[in-house]
Amino acid sequence: METKKLYRSRDDKMIAGVCGGLGKYLNIDPTLLRLIFALLVVFGIGSGLLVYLILMIVVPLEPVASTAVAAQVDAASIGVAGASPETASEADDEAA
Prior knowledge:
Elements: H1 18-26, H2 30-43, H3 47-58, H4 64-77, H5 85-95
């Protein structure tokens, strides 16, 4: 069993990546978490802001390697030219 680790997201972020990271960790849409934090700020007399700031300080930023590898895999899977030698040669074969 692989352990999941909580990180702030580098890709899916509005301010510091807290909601994006929580969404990835909990398998929840980050937009829903952003809405919850916003409601806590408005109706919780600022408690959502305090929780967000604490998470921003405590939760580490997502490692660069995992983001770079995921971007390469995504680029190769959608057929972006130059993503990898295989995709470039496949695109040339399809064009011919």
